[in-house]
Amino acid sequence: MSIAFPSTQWLRKLETILNSDKRYAQIARNWEGDINFVILPAQGEGDLHAPVVYYLDLWHGKCRQAREIDPQNEEMPEARFTLTASLSNYRKILEGELDPMQAMVTRRLKVEGSLTYMLRNVPVVLDFVRCCRLALQEEGGG
User: Fold this and answer.
1) CA 23, CA 107: separation in Å to the nearest integer?
2) 24 vs 79: CA distance, rounded Å
3) Does 87 have pLDDT greater than 50?
4) Quick one: which of 142, 136, 132 has its CA closest to 66?
5) Where does the pLDDT of residue 141 fall: very low under 50, low under 70, confident under 90, or very high at 90 and above?
């Protein structure tokens, strides 16, 4: 059984994994940057009617904060990175059908912030995606 994406349950599970996964802690030990995830409804996808925004404060292999932002009632935090994609493209990334780096380069995953920093830290980006995939699993963890 898997955890729904996007959901508060998935976000909580991701935060737990990021803070307990030894591999992520080692690979991301020098990462400094918070991220806004903007998940846009895609035409024809009836399960998401408004954008969903998640904020993650990632710092030296730990997640200091993970929360959902209500874009209707609060401003999005000034994060180092904002990643924007349709729900279908996020799901393709999480299901392994779309390579996250290819998604960035082809703008199926729009990156606001330093793409150069991300490209210099490809192992961190890929391991972060691995943790996101683990968060989809009911019993997944570090």
Assistant:
1) 28
2) 21
3) yes
4) 132
5) very low
Greatest Cα pair distance in the chain: 40
Exposed/middle/buried for residue 116 (C-beta within 10 Å: 0-12, 13-18, 19+):
exposed
* Beta strand spans in 70-115 (E): 81-86, 110-112
Residue 140 has pLDDT above 90, yes or no: no
Report the CATH architecture of 8-134. Answer: 2-Layer Sandwich (3.30)
For residue 68, report the phi and psi dihedrals to the nearest 5 degrees.
-90, 140
Residue showing tokens 């904060």: 65
Residue 15: closest CA among 52, 59, 64:
64
Which residue ranges make up each domain of the chain? 8-134
Token reading at 65: 């904060």
**Tokens, residue 74:** 């609060």
Helix or strand run (H / E) with residue 122:
helix 122-134
